[in-house]
Amino acid sequence: MKRKVQHLFSALTLAGFIFIAFGSGDDEKTSSKFDSATISNTGNSKPDVEILKQSAKYEPTLSSYTIHCRLKNNTTELISYLDLKATFYDKNGNIVGTGIGNAANFAAGAEKTVDVMGLDIQNCDKYEVEIGTILN
Q1: What's the longest Cα–Cα distance across the chain?
Q2: What is the per-residue pLDDT across 106-124, written as a single tens digit (0 to 9) for each?
């Protein structure tokens, strides 16, 4: 079972990298310690996509995390695809895993919840979520 999950995660990761190769996006990084966090934008202009809040849930059976990210499309156009990347760190700041999530057909001005999955994550103390590729 674990081998099947690893193959599935590898396939999803490969698909994410293929999408990255075909476009570039705006980056917005946020951090949290496994609880809901409200992210504020201190600049005058808002990013195309912003993370409004996020929360993470740990599943001990698969040693996995699911990060629920509430996003907002601040543009006046449909976003056909976007991906999110998570990096998980231990208490010393060492990377202990990564995760990915994606969304399609994100309407202009809309909000959407996107899940980011990280499998086989152990000794995690905090995580960081980054908006990767955005395709219109």
Answers
A1: 49
A2: 999 999 999 999 999 999 9
Q: Are 129 and 116 in contact (CB under 8 A)?
A: yes
Q: Nearest 5°: CA angle at 27, between 24 and 29?
A: 155
Tokens 């999408």 sit on residue: 19
Q: Which two tokens stand for residue 87?
A: 């990096």
Name the amino acid, one letter, at 70: R
Q: How many CB atoms lie within 10 A of CB 72?
A: 17
Residue 102: CA count within 13 A, CB half-sphere: 20
Single-letter amino acid code for the residue at 113: T
Backbone angles phi, psi at 19, to 5 degrees: -65, -35
